[in-house]
Specification:
This protein is α/β, with parallel strands linked by helices. The protein contains 17 helices and seven strands. It has one domain. About 30% of the residues are buried.
């Protein structure tokens, strides 16, 4: 009678395909060698597959309905590949918009095309620093077009290693290293993102949802300021439009207003560096940025290119904070002086100064059209068109 050990071994035999030569399997009661047979349970496979598919569809629809119920809508994600697709459209004589999200929301491409004769390419990005993109265009020997550069002082002089710099640097790097697979993936993703709300990858992934947990600051562990939630749509030309729910007074508008304040407030200096040393390093980094920007502008001009810097509207408590922390003379006047480039500061012109930003940082969709119309004559004068 076979022992329990031999029965155990026989049950764990691997199928023959794992062996070049089938091993001798022990005989039972002197009979022929046992053949391995993989037991396949009798289950209704087709029914199980149908149930699984229906459950996935139901869960997907439920998540989509929930995301729409809390204010989300279908829109493209502003990833590095979408930015790269726009960068690829830049021609030698193109008009290009660079900078931060105000250049994104406040400048209407249709109106700029009517007034300037060419449709601009939108390369501004939310929370991004303008310098890496400016340097990339200045180093492009084929480019001799026109740059409209939005300036938000704190983002414009952001030092290396900070999120605004890293965001812009990653986008520029992707435009030089994008693989065919990444390019195809972007084209396949766009039709889905244009119709499905829950594909907002910067806010509705598990990692981003976990980051929203209300964790208080602790000694030696400061929580990063929250990023504003969904309040604008983006199309294939990377044109941003504020949604109506944010343009009208309400909870979303108030929430975003209060998010800007800690986001634009400089963090305290690190405790492991003396304050004087930290201030010195920051000053050196800002001076280097002014120098690098001036060098990039000079390189662009040497090929016949043009650039105009634009300070776009901001309102309310955010305007008071920016004017206090980054006064006009500290950054804007210095950039214009060092580059000898034309600049348009909206407060200098009554027809541009009367606009209100609903959430303090960007114009509504309708106001962006009117503002762009009024900005055109100033752009043409600055660019000598």
């Amino acid at each position: 009678m076979p022992s329990s050990t031999s029965n155990f071994k026989r049950k764990l035999r691997l199928p023959r395909l794992f062996f070049s030569t089938p091993p001798e399997i022990e005989r039972v009661h002197g009979g022929p060698p046992l053949e391995y047979e993989r037991p396949i349970p009798e289950v209704p496979s087709r029914g199980i597959a149908t149930v699984v598919v229906l459950m996935v569809i139901a869960a997907t629809c439920a998540w989509e309905f929930y995301c729409r119920s809390i204010g989300y809508g279908p829109t493209l994600n502003d990833g590095e590949d979408l930015w790269t697709s726009a960068r690829r459209r830049v021609k030698p004589d193109s008009i290009v918009v660079i900078g931060d999200s105000r250049g994104w929301f406040d400048l209407d491409l249709d109106e700029l095309q009517k007034g300037l004769g060419k449709r601009p390419v939108q390369l501004a990005m939310g929370g991004g620093c303008a310098y890496p993109v400016l340097a990339d265009l200045a180093n492009d020997e084929n480019f001799h077009g026109t740059i409209i550069c939005s300036v938000v002082p704190r983002l414009f002089v952001a030092p290396p290693g900070t999120p605004p710099m890293e965001r812009a640097e990653k986008a520029v790097r992707r435009s030089h290293t994008q693989t065919p697979a990444q390019r195809v993936s972007q084209y396949l993703a766009m039709p889905l993102e244009e119709h499905v709300a829950f594909l907002k990858q910067e806010e509705l992934t598990l990692d981003d949802l976990v980051k929203r947990l209300p964790i208080p600051n602790r000694p030696y562990a400061l929580v990063s300021p929250r990023i504003p939630p969904y309040f604008g749509t983006l199309d294939r030309e990377r044109r941003a439009r504020m949604i109506e729910g944010c343009a009208q007074p309400g909870k979303l508008q108030t929430t975003i207003q209060q998010i800007w304040l800690p986001l634009f407030t400089p963090p305290p200096p690190p405790t492991y560096i003396p304050k004087e040393e930290f201030a010195k390093r920051m000053g050196q980094a800002i001076e280097q940025r002014f120098h690098d920007v001036a060098a990039a502008v000079q390189k662009l001009r040497s090929r016949g290119g043009k650039i105009v810097f634009v300070r776009l509207p901001h309102s309310g408590g955010l305007k008071a904070l920016e004017d206090r922390e980054t006064p006009r003379a500290a950054v804007w006047d210095r950039v214009i002086k060092d580059t000898a480039a034309p600049g348009i500061y909206y407060e200098d012109f009554p027809e541009l100064a009367g606009f209100n930003c609903p959430e303090w940082s960007h114009l509504s969709a309708g106001d962006s059209v009117e503002f762009s119309k009024r900005l055109i004559p100033h752009l043409r004068a600055a660019l000598q068109m």
